[in-house]
């Protein structure tokens, strides 16, 4: 626990993680809030609700790099305040919008979603030393698990008691409060030893978006595709067994195991490569295909959960170390887009496999997707030129995509740092 005490003792770190947790839990729950509003408030079908959810998710996936570039150019506070204002307008309008307009408005709201998570990731890189960063990103990844475990269940519980329009307002209020809180803290996104890189000093995209960065993004996509597909396979398996009521317990076992795994991994003295962690996650997901009731799914889910937060934390670590300071916002935005895309595509892809085979096929497809992404990341990273040897006594970091980060003032440590709709 010493590593975590050191991280939380960094000035401004504890309040930043606390406020961003509020925003992140609300953002995690926004799809559920809109789904329930369309079904219960507008009396539409689940297919119609899925259209609004898809529009919101697509907007978030496309908006990540755009907001990242704006953060690089204008700083976090200006971007946070603008997006907070737009979220106020959207969520206040939700209960009075007809379905057709809500569809377009949801896309716009996703495109300009409050970038609390990308800002937090950049701030972690700037505020921590190389020796602290892996534990800090492990905490950030655990934060994602907690958001997933808390946000959607609270929305479901509240929707059963009060108007779904009021629930939507509550989710919007939490997003706004969290985003405004991060803006008020205005965390630094550049370390003291980094040159403040403005737009004039931005490196060319081809100079930093190379095979190592692409490898990290591919594995981010593969990780959330695996997780999204696993969620669907759990529900399908329990439905076939007539045990759907146990789904919450199975997912909870998965989430608790992920929190434990993230905390243990962040305390280790040596990191593991992202491709290795993702490959192991894919492998341990495969045996769940043999489970036929909630008990064995809990066992399988706990085993896979132990590797979930560590895998996502190393992805965040890799992106933060491979991106030059002047484009760190755009790189973090690309990471968020890759995570969102994997989450959005996982359910339909794995759902198609389940329809063509059996519920167990969903676990097999999810695990194989993780293995394929891990192999692709490993092969891409091997195409990178040999890194310059670091100064004597300065350890070469590990943990991204079996890569060594390009030499930079802050690339000499072993950092690491999210999940399902934990994106």
What does this protein structure show overall?
Keywords: Membrane, Transmembrane, Transmembrane helix. The chain crosses the membrane at residues 21-40, 46-67, 79-112, 154-185, 214-238, 244-265, 272-290. This is MFS transporter. With 423 residues, this protein is an all-alpha fold. The protein has one domain (11-189, 208-382): MFS general substrate transporter like domains (Growth Hormone, Chain: A). The protein is 73% helix and 0% strand. It has 15 helices and no strands. The chain has helices at 2-8, 13-41, 46-74, 76-93, 99-111, 116-127, 130-159, 164-185, 205-208, 211-240, 247-267, 274-285, 294-322, 328-356, 359-382. Helix 1 (2-8) packs across helix 7 (130-159), helix 2 runs antiparallel to helix 6 and helix 2 (13-41) packs parallel to helix 7. The longest helix has 30 residues, at 130-159. The radius of gyration is 20 Å and the shape is globular. The two termini are 26 Å apart. Mean pLDDT is 81; it is low at 386-421.
* N-to-C span: 26 Å
Task: Please provide the ordered H/E string of secondary-structure elements.
Answer: HHHHHHHHHHHHHHH
Number of helices: 15
The CATH homologous superfamily is called MFS general substrate transporter like domains
- List segments where confidence is low: pLDDT < 50 over at least 5 consecutive residues: 386-421
Structural class: mainly alpha
What best-fitting shape do the alpha-carbon axes yield? Answer: globular
Strand residues, percent: under 5%
Supply the CATH class.
Mainly Alpha
Q: What about the largest sheet?
A: none
Compute the number of strand runs: 0
The total domain count is 1
CATH architecture: Up-down Bundle
CATH topology: Growth Hormone, Chain: A
Average residue-wise pLDDT: 81
What percentage of residues falls in helices of 4 or more residues?
over 70%
Rg, rounded, reads: 20 Å
Biased composition (Low complexity): 409-423
Transmembrane segments: 21-40, 46-67, 79-112, 154-185, 214-238, 244-265, 272-290
Keywords: Membrane, Transmembrane, Transmembrane helix
Region (Disordered): 382-423
């Amino acid at each position: 626990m010493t590593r975590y005490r050191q991280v939380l003792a960094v000035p401004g770190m504890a309040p930043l993680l606390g406020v961003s947790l509020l925003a992140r839990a609300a953002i995690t729950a926004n799809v559920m809030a809109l789904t329930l509003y369309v079904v219960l408030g507008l009396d539409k079908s689940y297919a119609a609700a899925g259209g609004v959810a898809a529009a919101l998710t697509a907007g978030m996936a496309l908006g990540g790099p755009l907001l990242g570039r704006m953060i690089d150019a204008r700083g976090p506070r200006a971007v946070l305040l603008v997006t907070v204002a737009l979220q106020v307008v959207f969520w206040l309008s939700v209960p009075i919008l007809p379905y057709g307009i809500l569809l377009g408005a949801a896309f716009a709201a996703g495109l300009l979603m409050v970038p609390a998570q990308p800002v937090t990731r950049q701030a972690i890189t700037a505020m921590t030393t190389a020796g602290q960063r892996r534990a800090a990103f492990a905490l950030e990844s655990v934060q994602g698990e907690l958001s997933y475990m808390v946000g959607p269940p609270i929305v479901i519980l509240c929707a059963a008691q009060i108007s779904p329009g009021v629930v939507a307002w509550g989710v919007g209020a939490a997003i706004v409060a969290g985003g405004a809180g991060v803006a008020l803290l205005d965390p630094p996104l550049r370390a003291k030893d980094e040159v403040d890189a403005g737009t004039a000093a931005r490196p060319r995209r081809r100079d930093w978006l190379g095979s190592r960065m692409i490898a990290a993004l591919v594995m981010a996509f593969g990780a959330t595709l695996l997780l999204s597909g696993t969620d669907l396979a759990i529900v399908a398996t329990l439905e076939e067994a007539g045990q759907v009521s146990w789904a919450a317990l199975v997912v909870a076992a998965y989430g608790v195991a992920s929190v434990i795994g993230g905390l243990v991994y962040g305390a280790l003295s040596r990191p593991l490569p992202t491709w290795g962690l993702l490959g192991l996650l894919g492998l341990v997901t495969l045996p769940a295909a043999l489970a036929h009731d909630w008990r064995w799914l809990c066992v399988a889910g706990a085993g896979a959960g132990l590797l979930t937060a560590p895998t996502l934390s190393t992805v965040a670590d890799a992106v933060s170390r491979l991106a030059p300071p002047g484009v760190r916002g755009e790189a973090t935005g690309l990471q968020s887009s890759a995570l969102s895309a994997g989450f959005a595509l996982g359910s339909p892809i794995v759902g198609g496999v389940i329809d063509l085979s059996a519920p167990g096929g969903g676990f097999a497809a999810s695990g194989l997707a993780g293995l394929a992404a891990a192999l692709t990341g490993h092969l891409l990273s091997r195409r990178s030129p040999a890194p310059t040897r670091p100064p004597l006594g300065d350890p070469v970091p590990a943990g991204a995509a079996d890569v060594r980060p390009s030499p930079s003032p802050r690339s000499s440590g072993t950092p690491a740092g999210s999940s399902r709709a934990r994106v």
